[in-house]
Specification:
With 252 residues, the chain is of the alpha/beta class. The chain is 35% helix and 8% strand. Helix 3 crosses helix 5 (82-91). The longest helix has 24 residues, at 19-42. It starts with 11 loop residues before the first helix and ends in a 7-residue tail after the last strand.
Length: 252
């Protein structure tokens, strides 16, 4: 048998379409796909008026109360149609997002929210400023283990004067200055400073005017002394029940 003929050289235009050009095509396709998905998400089609889209308000209230603690179920509820989405956003009282939304204006959609739970590394100081639209209704804010929150973030909470419960567990970058920045939140009844290592007696003194405060957790706040705690208690004579917890590191 004769030798196999050599393959013909590829056309010039194919030789030019190397890895760079292919990568550009893929990126362009991804961009188009992403934009299409976003458009679909932003334009949830209106379902025909049926007994399911025009449920009585008390039914919506009962369903939203049941699903609002589950992010996945709550999200699916909102995707059914515009009527269900609007009902959810109007009636939901507890929000537990996986992180702060990239667009803070989304908070404006949730006019009845009383409790927000934001936890984790991805919450930043600027994200707390975005909570301002909830100032009229928000009474409980959970910021456990938001390690990147600083005094600047705590200061951004100043407009949220309806808050009665604030959890700063593990916000280890917050110092006495951050505690002083809480001054506008005079409605606070519960404050959790567990593992806020930089808080000292000076920060504790800033809490004396908080006459509504009945629960304070100072666990592992190494800078807080017994004297500081006694001084705070002394400033609250005649105010009523007050629970203050302080844990110390075991001796070595």
């Amino acid at each position: 048998m004769g030798a196999r003929a050599a393959a013909a050289p590829a056309p010039l235009h194919q030789l030019r379409e190397g890895p760079t050009m292919l990568s550009e095509k893929v990126d362009k396709q991804k961009s188009v796909l992403k934009r299409t998905i976003q458009e679909l998400n932003d334009t949830v089609p209106d379902s025909p008026a049926t007994v399911w889209t025009e449920l009585p308000e008390y039914v919506f209230e009962a369903v939203v109360e049941h699903v609002q603690g589950d992010r996945e179920v709550s999200a699916n509820f909102r995707y059914v149609c515009h009527a269900w989405r609007e009902a959810h956003d109007r009636l939901v009282t507890v929000l537990k997002p996986s992180g702060a939304p990239p667009d803070a204006s989304i908070w404006k959609k949730f006019g009845g929210v009383k409790t927000v739970v934001l936890k984790g590394y991805f919450v930043k100081d600027d994200d707390l400023r975005g909570l301002t639209p909830l100032a009229a209704t928000l009474t409980s804010l959970d910021l456990q283990h938001c390690y990147d929150i600083t005094n600047k973030g705590v200061k951004a909470l100043a407009p949220l004067t309806a808050i009665t419960s604030l959890d700063l567990t593990g916000c280890s970058r917050v110092t006495d200055m951050g505690i002083r920045a809480l001054a506008p939140l005079t409605a606070l009844t519960s404050l959790n400073l567990f593992r806020c290592f930089k808080v000292t007696d000076k920060g504790l003194r800033a809490l004396a005017p908080f006459t509504a405060l009945t629960s304070l957790n100072l666990g592992y706040c190494e800078g807080v002394s017994n004297e500081g705690m006694r001084a705070l208690l002394a400033s609250r004579t005649g105010i009523g029940d007050f629970v203050m917890q302080k844990l110390t590191f075991p001796s070595r």
